[in-house]
Amino acid sequence: MTGLSKHCAALSSPNPYAVSLAAFLVLGILVSYFPQHAKIIQRRTSEGLSPWWVLLGGLSSIAAIGNILTLPASRADIGCCKEIRGSECAAALLGVAQIGCQWACFMFIVMLFLIYFPTEPDLVSSAASITSTAPPKRRDAVVVGVTTLLALLVVGITSVAMVAAFPHHTQGWANLLGSIAGALAAIQYLPQIYYTFRIGDVKSLSIITMLIQVPGAFVFAFSLWLRVGWAGWSTWLVYVVTGILQGVLLGLAISYYLARRKSKSGSTGVPSMEDEEENLEVDDAAAEEPPLPTERTRLISRDSSGNARPMPQRIRGSHGTQRSVASNRQLGMLYAATPPEHDSDSSEGSGK
């Protein structure tokens, strides 16, 4: 093509290898987040996701999308779409598409976290995971939602104002957003690692998503290294750190998942709550008073001499014992599944 600027002329002949890798990464980002979205929706709870992990990830993705959209190089690529063909424009904007897809997918996680925020501990889970961590607090969801919304508004309004009023001075703002995004992404998985280690369970955390994203982080870092080389280590190093931390989280999640499956398969016939309720119903039926004697039962109960024979009395001692044992066993199971905070609250209330 003739009449193209130097920058647009370079975009008119893209590298097929780099374009294929970038397109593969865009598809991988979309596929990797789908299991996490599906698991939260399927379980109808976001229990197991650290509020700080969700908050840091949301802020990091907001800063990253603001960085890529305000970079002078990115805006120049977008401007070249008026001069080059559509396929060449799509290839040039694959870098923007990568950050945009990651931002959209993580914003959906933030939304699901708020919609399915757990209001009380899951009593179906293991007693160890319930008693080792406090129930989630509603204020955590408020902090995550309000902070994410404010960050989105501040970054969006400031970026638009900078591009409109100072289009030739947006590099500094983009650098600031890029530094914030990198710092938050580097520490994003630390609270989730601690939270998962504390509860000892994966719950709504998707192992499949991490299996895809851990190698994907290193592939993404490699794609950035191909563009900027060793001199641009600050650009791709953050994704290497993120991949390492996410790999640690993946190892924890797999170990807890295997341990949980092993405990389920190795468990012996411990009576469940439903079985205890059925036993109580049977005991109640057996312990009922016998019906009052009628005229027919009086005649049948007389012996051959015509004397009245005493009606046999139901021995209720054994049934009462079985009933008390079953009741005590059920109360013990309920007490084991009750968080310590509830016990302390009830004791304080009784003391008052």
UniProtKB/TrEMBL annotation:
Biased composition (Basic and acidic residues): 340-352
UniProt keyword annotation of Membrane present: yes
Membrane topology field: Multi-pass membrane protein
Residue intervals passing through the bilayer: 17-36, 48-70, 90-117, 141-166, 172-190, 202-224, 236-259
Top-level taxon of origin: Eukaryota
Cellular component annotations (GO), alphabetically ordered: membrane
Pfam families cross-referenced by the UniProt entry: PQ-loop
Start-end of Acidic residues biased regions: 273-287
Record protein name field: PQ loop repeat protein
Organism: Cladosporium halotolerans
Taxonomic placement: Eukaryota, Fungi, Dikarya, Ascomycota, Pezizomycotina
